[in-house]
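Student: Please help interpret what follows.
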Amino acid sequence: MTGELKIALSNATGVPIYEQIKDQIKTAIMAGTLTEGEQLPSIRSLARDLRVSVITTSRAFSDLAAEGFVANVQGKGSFVLARDSDLVREHVLREVEEHLEAAARAANLAKVSVAELHTMLDAVLSEDPINHKENPDA
């Protein structure tokens, strides 16, 4: 593995550990930190480094393969697939839509106005390091 892969886990987020691993690897792939053809750490070594179960890292890698981010090659490891494939983009777009729908439902329950929701989204986007990297003026 040549790219820098740093994964930080938190028990306070309420997000399952396998999902945190998956999301951070996915983010690294989309940001270009992990590039096409690059090998991910082995499931066992990542589990050891993160001090989590092999089952947890295995679930993250399986989900990444199912979503088209990596290819798991029996006996050789997991490798990053092309990040600009249509499948990956469609999956990410679907995820964005799901999160926006959940945010809209929560905002509706809390009686948050559309203007307040836009302000919140702008604040979240301005704190995103990837957004800053690609849009330094944002």
